[in-house]
Amino acid sequence: MKRLCLRGGRVIDPSQGLDRVADVWIEGSRILALGERPDLHADVTYDVRNCIVCPGLIDMHVHLREPGREEDETIATGTAAALAGGFTSVACMPNTEPALDSQAAAEFVYLQAERARNANVFPVGAITKGRRGEELAEIGGLVEGGAVAFTDDGAPVVSAEIMRRALEYCRMFDKPVLSHCEDLELSRGGVMHEGVESMRLGLRGIPAAAEEVMVNRDITLADLTGGRVHILHVSTAGSVDLIRRARHKGIQVTAEACPHHFTLTDACLRTFDSNFKMSPPLRTRDDVQALVAGLRENVIEVIASDHAPHAPEKKMRELDQAPNGVIGLETVLPICIHALVEPGHLTWSQLIEKMTVHPARILGIDRGTLKPGAEADVTVIDPQREWIIDPAAFRSKSRNCPFAGWRVRGRAVLVFVSGELRYRLDREDS
Question: Confidence class of residue 104 from pLDDT cuts 50, 70 and 90?
Fold first, then answer.
């Protein structure tokens, strides 16, 4: 077996409380050792001085669009984008065509990911058949096919009864339910956050209550059933407060925030640029500050991209006709450095924890650590690498990025999956 040594980097592994300069030794597909080991000799040595070496990053909220919408993204292109962003594992949402609601569909995702040989892909099964919200999907069969969690993301589970049953069934398999919290009666026809900006622009708004009503419902159902609920793409201050209170009560609720929601506001829609249209919508500066506080307090344990690719011709429609969503796999890291690390809201260790240990624990996957014997998924980050975000250079098929043109710092330069170098930053990408 080939033996690799990543020499001289700043090793940050929150799973071990580790933050120090050390060597990382990989043998075959596993982590062999950390630290100076004069008794070991490497077949290949990588000089990673002035870089951060951490467990492979995990994005637990990604849309890969395959099958059915390959013009937007495929498993191959989406996982290539993941590697470029420093992610070694992603969990893909089930709003494909057909929906990921059967054992065969989950197995298809694993097969396509193996063929692509990029990042690991963990399928998330649909809660209901066809994501129609009418009848539970075959939860047991999906677990057998490798589903790590369940959601109807892209749409809420409207029926409280069905959501209750989903939490009960998933509890039997120790799987989380990932909730897209949206009251469709309140959000119908909306294109942006309901507030001063929507009034000024004359656009129909989506009130914060459309999210908060459903967050409150699903927390209540988690309390009732003892199930695990994870709130996807939290966007409002009220939601953060509800989650904070629930966690103090000991209810099994976790949550995630996306970079666009804790950096951008509804004022971005003044340009009528559909790359700022998403669900849930961009909110106010007060909401942004509440999300940052939730991340700092660990009320929000996970940072995820909600990578939602759409082919350029779809996003070029008028604002009310364009689909919701933005891509994010290749920009999460620098945006988090800009918005969270550099201002001092999070330390490097806290940031990496939200992108490794916590998503791995919630999904129940054996990733997110550099402990000897663990799968050798490793990301090497140059925290000082400056670059300009250019969607035209992305590995994703789509270009709907809200951060185009930003000058940022920090980039993955080497990414190993199961001990194999799968990505190296080229000079022309710098």
Answer: very high
- Which H or E run contains 83? helix 75-84
User: Distance between CA atoms of 171 and 213, rounded to whole angstroms?
Assistant: 23
What confidence tens digit (pLDDT) does each residue in 175-223 have? Answer: 999 999 999 999 999 999 999 999 999 999 999 999 999 999 999 999 9
pLDDT band at 378 (very low <50, low <70, confident <90, very high): very high
Backbone phi, then psi, for 12, in 5-degree steps?
-120, 110
As a 3-state breakdown, the chain gives helix, strand, coil percent values, each rounded to 5, of 35, 25, 45
- Which residues lie across from 89 on neighbouring strands? 58, 120
Q: List, as one string, the DSSP characters of 232-257.
A: -S---HHHHHHHHHHHHTT--EEEEE
| 306 noted as active-site residue | yes
Catalytic residue among 266, 306, 377, 382: 306
Would you list the DSSP string of 107-130? HHHHHHHHHHTSSEEEE-EESBGG
pLDDT tens for 17-58 read 999 999 999 999 999 999 989 898 999 999 999 999 999 999
* Distance of alpha carbon 237 from alpha carbon 245, whole angstroms: 13
Cα gap 294→27, rounded to integer Å: 39
Helix axes 103-116, 75-84, angle to 10 degrees: 60
- The span from the first CA to the last CA of the chain, in angstroms, equals 32
**Where does residue 13 rank: exposed (0-12), middle (13-18), buried (19+ CB within 10 A)?**
buried
Domains annotated on the chain, with CATH: 3-53+374-429 (2.30.40.10), 56-363 (3.20.20.140)
**What pLDDT, on the 0 to 100 scale, is given for residue 1?**
86
What are phi and psi for residue 274, nearest 5 degrees? -70, -10
Give the chain's length. Answer: 430
Read off the pLDDT of residues 246-302 as tens digits, 9 standing for 90 and up: 999 999 999 999 999 999 999 999 999 999 999 999 999 999 999 999 999 999 999
H or E element in which residue 408 lies: strand 407-417
Q: CA-CA distances (angstroms) from residue 226 to 183, 200, 220?
A: 23, 44, 10
* CA dist., res. 310 & res. 323, Å (int): 8
